[in-house]
Amino acid sequence: xxxxxxxxxxxxxxxxxxxxxxxxxxxxxxxxxxxxxxxxxxxxxxxxxxxxxxxxxxxxxxxxxxxxxxxxxxxxxxxxxxxxxxxxxxxxxxxxxxxxxxxxxxxxxxxxxxxxxxxxxxxxxxxxxxxxxxxxxxxxxxxxxxxxxxxxxxxxxxxxxxx
Length: 163
Description:
It comes from Bradyrhizobium macuxiense. This is thioredoxin-dependent peroxiredoxin. Keywords: Antioxidant, Disulfide bond, Oxidoreductase, Peroxidase, Redox-active center. The structure is a single chain. By secondary structure, the protein is of the alpha+beta class. Helix content is 28%, strand content 29%. A five-stranded mixed sheet has the order 6-5-4-9-10. It has a three-stranded antiparallel sheet with strand order 1-7-8. Mean pLDDT is 93; it is low at 1-9.
């Protein structure tokens, strides 16, 4: 049964400046928005590393990483998992997209990907599967909320190509 979700009030809107971030990533080091100045950027927010839907989504973005690169677009995956969990996820599924750890949920909240969810009659806070496409000027070009995984990475690629 799919989880029902509500978008947080005051969530990020298309046309807004992408919120800055600086967070640790798999393999060491950190990643910040300014690292991608002048480039298109896809940020896909997923609930939990190594779960079925998140694995399919990350594999799809990895499968299309060359096509994204050809479109001048960088892809980053973000969840609230630890760096260690992100590295295990990357290694287990041979993922090529960088995975960012946002354990404090600052980036998740700034991008509207953290909010109230409900499943089986229980309400809780969690990651709302969301993808944000940032254009070369650092503005949000497109937001996909409550993402359904199948075919999603392909749709994001088409949107990136059209910018």
